[in-house]
């Protein structure tokens, strides 16, 4: 059933957004689209994504469970407040390197939704299907949204002061997963509107937390000695390569979503979709990076260091409880739970189906009956439910982060190397540089950093010290 005939429209980019395509040979695919699935110029899913929607899609994905769930796990790994804060500065810088790389790819293929699957297909067309199948298998097997659902369940139960048991956590996580899937499956337009609304709520909550932190540091609350955790910030630091890289991956996980708009670039309402999604990525990263850093400072000012390290995914509950008392422990975790309301992004799975790399590609690429990618949504929801049911509730969140982070780093390495392959191919055929070209030094550093994150857990701790000190 695999390797079936790709689905879609056989049309090249020739509307001015990719002037290179006019030079391509008429006897084969243009240089801007060397893959096995053609562009969908009919816009089957519509052109509903504006710059604002793209920003909201990114922020909505980034501001899921990460900022509320990973600070405690990071501190537990790295051992010190200083390294914790350093990671929240380094992670968005690392993401910005990826953003410039994705922008160059997107400027070459501005009508292909799907993000990484499209970029990898174009960079490595030979051996035929090899990279596409590898990525497809990985993305399908890790195609779940369980981390947000699990954190939603924990904060939802905390808001109603219900004891968090494995059974209750599982039931609530399953319920929110199916509710999210229904929203996405019924209407593209209304799901985007829901994302915009929920993202607005998330931003308001984050800004409120930042100003609460300022109030604590300014001495306007009952919190005693808010600067205690900032004394000797690097005391207790761990320089074990495994601990540091694992801790950093959790900080990096909190920024996952900066590339969300690239997955729907084919639906962007713009004459230059690549520039629109790049601008959306920059706006999203700058805004969220500032908020996340100050929220971590707020956590540190309010919650004792040893308690943060033992808080698991509930550091925000402790924050609200210590500042606002029992009332805060009820009301604000409910808002946090709302922030973790899942954001199912099914475009990548649909693009895999269009390439003929899934059984029943017609079903998984179809947008019937609601004009939405119903098949991919159903697939992601099924995997989400299986993960929630299969993994012990206590270990689920950290396990999911580790399970998805390392394969993603492998493909990020392939993407960074692949852009040089595409550049060389274009030069050999006399084509000009990409409309949005990333700096080679940025790509090189991005590739090196991805490789280090893959190998550091297996090498001597001193290597990490040399690199970061």
From TrEMBL:
Low complexity: compositionally biased ranges: 21-30
**Membrane topology classification:** Multi-pass membrane protein
Compartment(s) where it occurs, according to its Swiss-Prot or TrEMBL record: Membrane
Pfam families attached here?
AA_permease_2
Its cellular-component GO annotations read: membrane
Q: Does the keyword Protease apply?
A: no
Q: Which UniProt keywords apply?
A: Membrane, Transmembrane, Transmembrane helix
Q: Does the keyword Transmembrane apply?
A: yes
Q: Where is this region: Disordered?
A: 1-32
Spell out where the chain crosses the membrane.
49-70, 82-103, 135-158, 170-191, 203-223, 280-303, 323-344, 443-468
A molecular function GO annotation: L-amino acid transmembrane transporter activity
State the name under which the record lists this protein: Amino acid transporter
- The organism of origin for this protein: Pholiota conissans
